[in-house]
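Researcher: I need the complex structure. Ligand is alpha-D-glucopyranose. Inputs:
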Amino acid sequence: MTHATSETATAIMRANDRGGYTVPTAGLYPYQWNWDSAFAALGFAAFDRDRAWRELETIFEGQWADGMAPHIIFRNHDPSYFPGPDIWGSNTEPPSSGHSQPPVVAIVARWLVETGDREDLRRAHALFPRLMAWHGWWHRERDPDETGLVAIIHPWESGRDNCPDWDAGMERITIPDDLGAYHRRDTDWVAADQRPTHETYDRYLTMVKFGRECGWDHKRIYRDGPFLMADPCVQFVLMRADRDLAVLAERFEDDAARRTIADWIARDAEGAQALWNDAAGGFVAREMRTGALVDAITNASMLAFFGGAGTRAQQAELADQARQILDLCRFGFPSWDPRRPGFEQRRYWRGPVWSVMNWMIAGGLDAAGHADLATRIRHDTRALVRQSGFFEYFDPLTGDGLGGPDFTWTAAIDLALEHEFGAAAAA
Ligand code: GLC
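Model: Output:
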């Protein structure tokens, strides 16, 4: 059985290969997505290491002059996706979206180096300045006051697009009269009850309009934009990725980079504390303009272990919360706490389980000494695929496959788990 799923996973990755980069799934997502490609590289490493590196390298073909690696690169115009390049107005070649996504690449690059040979080291070295520029962009543009807490300017930047975490920031947005009519394409592919509502979409586009109209001036967007929140997923992935980048800097004997990264790391551990919510018993999202904390645990909260965030007491509390939540689910880890209002077991990021989040959560739990929880989560991740196929996400109560089919990152993570690819030990 395991063998059969590996073959299918490999076939899916090959079928979604567009020559140097993969699409997440044909139809629904016809372009290159940033963190999808980082996870895809992990899957490719199971059968083609050169192709794994290509996947990482192509992410940076869309890198902006200021260092940002955008969340979508629009190489071939495909009208089946909305909002496309004209709505974003990036004025870059290739065209892209105007914000980023969780910076997973350095984590995978370090892992490739540590499990590889001199060729891996060479490819990582070539990518290193690009990675430094991108991480630098996060620390500069998304944390201009150097607090150690990075913000996001759109829920899409978190990668957890429709999570109730963003409701507080979304409610503050006024939809302008001149937003204009548009035709969503996502609901042509996936049932509406698994996708965001129409009003949510109007707000998404209001944020894009602001960015486009100020020429994607990120200083201005941070200061005056319609949405500014902090996300435990971005914060913890960046913390983890900074540590992995530090290990690479060490390998390349790059002292200047080492000093820069050490500053980032020291600050971020401090900044992460602004996400701790005692009442919820975990790290949660924060509305940056008011300082309000969300009151529920998500799968992003569980990345604290992976990011190396929190005190021993905080991590113990989080592990306890993880146990309680897993007891309520047939398959972990849900994207929203089932004990909280707002839990929807089938709707995009409001309850369902994602393989990529699980891979990171399990890696962190293992490193923190919670092998029982890590094993449960890895087991569930593979069981979901065996029961339902390689879907985009899954119902935590029934295991039903939801969203797009034949999904690249679901296939990649299944291969990674099959081959026991875990992130390298924390630095
Ligand atoms: C959705 C997800 C996002 C992902 C993209 C492509 O927008 O929320 O995280 O990158 O799909 O798979």
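Model: Summary of the prediction. The beta strands are 32-33, 72-73, 229-230, 276-277, 282-283, 286-287, 393-394, 401-402.
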